[in-house]
User: Which sequence fits this backbone?
């Protein structure tokens, strides 16, 4: 009877018919297991919010040299060091500038049916100089690479590798500023950093196939950025707050427009190819804190 019960359960999971080990079936089995396991033992997550709006913490140095915060009463340290004066000061100004120049203005141009060339020209002439100026204003609050969290340090390494290969001084300068702006943002804003790290596993699966083809001598096409749409779809599906779903859509739309600018497209293609995506994966500690940020961290194996 027990064996028959197991077969009936498998029959229900697979939707009937003869059981076959397909990818869809494996995913259903995984979700079937975790849906029941998490009812018995929910996934661990940050807890200080249960008894207070704040918590006592101290800064420490992780074994890899990066900064981390040890929060009283929590099981894991938090990667990074979210400094109050940076969050409300330079980072807030930087995000506001990016929101207005990159997202709001680009969206306005799209509504005016501007051409890709017109938007690219707007970026070169208006957006880039102001963003570079803002990045320079934030430099005093930027951490050196050895103090960055592991994932951001890997992004920094990829940009530095590309920077060393760029011959033209002006282009090398722009790559350096992109590196400084992106790493500063990811280091200080762990909500967006966690989202990138969460999507890294999908990107890694995609990139490892390209590297294997290159390894055996098969020529591969330039990076098809349309496949990155899948990563944005996954993030959007895992968002809990509707406003964040809309924000992910906006980021994806604007990024597609920006990728029509040849220089930016070439830079992003080189950086995505260079990043060792396994180093970007969420750690247990990252997931512990990420589960407290209105995001379905275990979306791939658990029905929320």
Assistant:
């Amino acid at each position: 009877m027990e064996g028959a019960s197991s077969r009936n359960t498998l029959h229900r999971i697979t939707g009937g018919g003869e059981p076959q080990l397909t990818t869809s079936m494996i995913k259903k089995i995984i979700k079937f297991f975790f849906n029941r396991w998490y009812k018995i033992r929910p996934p661990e997550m940050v807890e200080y919010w249960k008894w207070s709006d704040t918590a006592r913490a101290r800064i420490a140095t992780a074994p890899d040299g990066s900064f981390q915060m040890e929060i009283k009463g929590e099981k894991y340290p938090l990667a990074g060091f979210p400094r109050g004066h940076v969050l409300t000061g330079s980072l807030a100004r930087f995000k506001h500038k990016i929101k207005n120049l990159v997202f709001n203005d680009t969206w306005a141009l799209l509504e005016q049916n501007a051409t890709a060339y017109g938007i690219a020209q707007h970026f070169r002439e208006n957006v880039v100089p102001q963003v570079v100026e803002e990045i320079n204003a934030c430099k005093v609050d930027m951490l050196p690479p050895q103090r960055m969290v592991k994932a951001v340090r890997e992004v920094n390494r990829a940009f530095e590798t590309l920077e060393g290969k760029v011959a033209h001084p002006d282009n090398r300068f722009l790559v350096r500023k992109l590196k400084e702006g992106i790493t500063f943002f990811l280091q200080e804003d762990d909500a967006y950093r966690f989202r990138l790290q969460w999507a890294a596993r999908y990107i890694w699966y995609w990139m490892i196939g390209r590297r294997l083809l290159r390894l055996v001598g098969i020529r591969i096409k330039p990076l098809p950025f349309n496949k990155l749409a899948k990563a944005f779809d996954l993030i959007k599906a895992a968002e809990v707050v509707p406003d964040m779903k809309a924000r992910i859509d906006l980021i994806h739309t604007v990024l597609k427009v920006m990728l029509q600018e040849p220089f930016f497209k070439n830079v992003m293609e080189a950086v995505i190819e260079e990043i060792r995506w396994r180093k970007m994966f969420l750690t247990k500690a990252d997931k512990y804190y990420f589960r407290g940020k209105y995001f379905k961290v275990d979306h791939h194996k658990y029905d929320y």
The mean pLDDT is 86. The longest strand covers residues 57-61. The radius of gyration is 22 Å.
